[in-house]
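Summary for the steering committee. One of the milestones for this cycle was to obtain a three-dimensional model of the protein with 1,3-dihydroxyacetonephosphate bound, which we needed before selecting residues for the alanine scan. The sequence and ligand used are listed below.
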Amino acid sequence: MCCTIEDLITTARRMAELGLVIGSFGNVSCRQDDRILITPTCLDYSRMEPADLVTLDLAGKKLAGGREPSSEFRLHVAIYSARPDAQAIVHTHSAHALALSLVATELPMLTEEMEYGIGGNVPVAPFVPAGTQELADQAADILKGIPSKALILARHGVVGFGQSLNEALLICQLVERNAKIYLLTQPR
Ligand code: 13P
């Protein structure tokens, strides 16, 4: 088992405390054998209780939980299917990564920490509306063919994944930090 409900809530709160999202934006999930545990849609992280978490099967069908799953559940389902190395996923809307998505087509591997942590350049997926199957399919198609454990979604945010919630959150932090470094070093 990759995580407990408490781990999931702790990671979601940490994501908000780190400023990687505001309000109830963003979402977090982990894979538990043939199930996915995911944060609910539109609920402030400070108010999130264990009963609010949602359990899905690997096709995205709701199996349990007091609320509706994150509107990005299709994105999470598609990434678990495309990448066997994904056991936990964090989706953020961090500012520098979002800014980069407006001016570049990828975050190049600028630093050693990025090479070590993320494993490759991070592409920017062309804009498609949030919460759609199109967004999920596009993300899966891109991630199938590259080593990177992260993807930037144009005008939207970042999705990072790994073997654990801690790793998935770290990947999102690395993308945000290196997007900031990229923007700081671009000629004006
Ligand atoms: P949820 O609140 O539905 O998880 O989604 C917000 C979001 O981040 C959409 O990309």
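Key point for the committee: The pocket of 1,3-dihydroxyacetonephosphate is lined by residues 24-27, 41-42, 70-72, 91, 130 (CB under 6 Å).
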